[in-house]
Amino acid sequence: MGVEPYKTHGFRPTLVEWRLKQRMRKHEFIFVSDMGDMWGDWVPKEWIERVLKTLRWKPDASYFFLTKNPRRYREFRGLFTDNMVLGATIETNRVYNLSRAPTPKERFEEMSRMEWKHKAIVIEPILDFDSEFVSWIRKIQPETVHVGYDNYNCRLPEPRLSKTETLVEELRQFTQVETRGLRKAWFE
Q: Spelled out in words, what is the top-level CATH class assigned to the domain 25-180?
């Protein structure tokens, strides 16, 4: 859907009204709030309700939501429709304290409890992980998993490429996996 709002508003939470009025093409797959997190605790409930109610009236497209705060999905359970995919970023099963987001374990617990058939997990930027990470993803039962390395050269604690490739192989045994930007870790 483009980056125009970020040129105008930066990364301040903003409800971009004209986006709600846009026509959606049949079979279009839309990443809602790309480059943002409309499920953050700082986002007013009214904004989220407005977006979800608008999308209910545009059933020909499919919508992908992504958050590091999946607990917030519970507040809006009755507003989701079958053409909405609820996703969470879970980049590891370790605690690295790199952001103020809920811990990976909290995100895992929320997603594994969530009763929704259209779930996705984004492991990007992937951080080094322990062997139990695969069982976490299996328990969540996502339709799809996206795996990718940091593309901003932030020198994060990444796993070796061989470890990531093994993870992808294991995930493919029970879900669809898409990869992007797989490469050697910055320290390899």
A: alpha beta
